[in-house]
Design a protein that fits this description.
The chain is an alpha+beta fold. About 30% of the residues lie in helices and about 35% in strands. It is globular and about 35 Å long.
Length: about 120
């Protein structure tokens, strides 16, 4: 009797464990244009004509972001180093197409891509 009880508990635990989504973060690679988030959201500014402004905004603390190719979804970016803005690593790529590899983090309905690698694809 005890054996059947423990087997049924073990079975329930296994079913729950298998049905839960994976907790391990997965690496993704996303391609798109590095944009100045404020000017893009306010005015739709992007591309080579906006490169100098985007770099100046980045120097002044405005977050650079990735505008995903094909979906035009704005992806917020974060440095993998604590207490460091990703702008220093992204600024040289402003208005250019890049591939960013990293892991998504999400809290409170907001999602960011934590950068592990930036690969320059082309100047726009």
């Amino acid at each position: 009797m005890k054996r059947a009880y423990y087997l049924s508990i073990a079975l329930v635990v296994c079913v729950i464990a298998v049905s839960m989504p994976s907790m391990a973060a997965q690496q993704v690679t996303v391609r798109g244009e590095i944009i100045d988030s404020v000017c893009f959201i306010k005015m739709g500014a992007r591309g080579a004509d906006h490169r100098d402004c985007a770099q100046t905004c980045a120097d002044n603390g405005i977050p650079l972001a990735l505008l995903e190719e094909g979906t035009d979804q704005l992806i917020w970016l974060a440095s993998s180093t604590s207490m460091q803005s990703p702008n220093d690593d992204l600024k040289a790529h402003a208005s250019h197409t890049v591939e960013i590899t990293g892991e998504y983090a999400e809290r409170g309905g907001v999602k960011i891509l934590v950068i592990s690698e930036i690969k320059h694809i082309s100047a726009n």
